[in-house]
Amino acid sequence: MTEPDLPQPPTRDLCGTMLVHRRLLNESMTYRARRAAIENRALQYERGRRSPVRSEVVTVPVVVHVVHNPAVPEQNIGDDQIHSQLAVLNRDFRAANPDREKVPEVWRPLVADAKIEFRLAAVDPEGEPTGGIIRVPTDRRSFGFDDAVKASATGGSDPWPTDQYLNIWVCQLGGGLLGYAQFPGGPPQTDGVVVLHTAFGTTGTAAAPFDGGRTATHEIGHWLDLYHIWGDDDGACTSDDKVADTPNQADANTGSPVFPHVSCGNGPHGDMFMNYMDYVDDDAMFMFTRGQVTRMNACLEGVRASFLVSSHALAVPSRPAPAGPVPSGAAPAGLTSAGPVPSGGAAGVPASAPGAAAGAAGLHQAAAPGQDFGPVPGPAHWPAPGAAPGVTDGAGTGVTDGAGTGVTDGAGTGVTDGAGTGVTDGAVGQAARPDGEVTRVLRDSERLVTEVLRDIRTAIHLVGGDRPGG
């Protein structure tokens, strides 16, 4: 494969998230409308007009795509390195990292537990057991921030359904990039996080000063709608990260600064450079704040709400062996057959396994690992802006917002936002839950669906208002 001449970010841009964000803002009116609705929701949480629903820990299913060039064997990182990264994430997002004690005393009351944990997926999109790690060889020497690593057609690996899995691509990045993420509200085909293999985890190829696993913590912060703590205004002190309890600061900090480091008149305590959303070395960042956790909650209960109510990717399916030969067309013992598997369904999924009815429930059906999605998905492959705000009926089975941000009712079994931005509810995946938890999930889902619909109406209004003559 011939690699195109890609624009490379400046080497000081260790994170490419804002480069992706600005590209999408420039190219897609749909993305601008989605981001406006997401910001509106986050502001309501920050001002107390909405309160977080959840009080329990949410576990996010993760699939790691190791995209490696066989000519450079170290790019094919080991399982131990991947598991070391998951361990870091589960400490950092639970405020259980031992180095949190290094947070200056003035800010220790702000250190917050996000109540988010991460686990490698146990079930793949087809309902089959998995270890949650995909290894894909490539002939590319490196990747940039153009999302090529996220599609097999461009030398990468196709994502698993991004409303059910956090997709993390680990590869060789060029241009000085440590990683990048896609903010919520972008195209589902490219949703997820990309990390340089030498900045991933704490063992194997991980290299100082980025061998503490904090690059993934930082990028997943973006995936959960956190901005850089300095507001990306190139030192102007006119913008911030939209979080009230993080001090305004002039620019990114690097290395291992000494407290206090004052900028933008933020003395006497100065920059909160030890925050995960700054650019300091891994061993110099230790915390998320309460305000940042509130913003993550706004994201998880809005655009990424599917991760709150669908955990089937974490449950290993039970497949008892049949007692004897299985007649042609019949289901083995332990499986329920209701006839031929419909197009888009998952053949061989136990009826009791959460997500078995994913096709009927309106969940995203994505390609199995290795299936080709075609050209790199991007704004050019989204619905035309003219159709974005419209609401259409999908073959009589429910309601789908044309922008991909609406709600699809799949055969009456639940409610799913088509872009992975909404809520999955109903019978799917609830059989194994205790009755009390079912009641709680259904109640919470009802509220979340109402709020998602309100956000959709806001987005439709914004898109419609941007159109000439609209």
TrEMBL record:
Domain of life: Bacteria
Segments of skewed composition (Gly residues): 393-423
GO terms, molecular function: metallopeptidase activity
Keywords: Disulfide bond, Hydrolase, Metal-binding, Metalloprotease, Protease, Signal, Zinc
Residue numbers spanned by region Disordered: 316-337, 367-435
Biased composition (Low complexity): 326-337, 383-392
Domain (Peptidase M43 pregnancy-associated plasma-A): residue spans on this chain: 158-301
Xref: Pfam families: Peptidase_M43
PANTHER family: METALLOPROTEASE MEP1 (AFU_ORTHOLOGUE AFUA_1G07730)-RELATED (PTHR47466:SF1), PTHR47466
Family membership noted in the UniProt record: Belongs to the peptidase M43B family.
Name under which the protein is recorded: Zinc metalloprotease
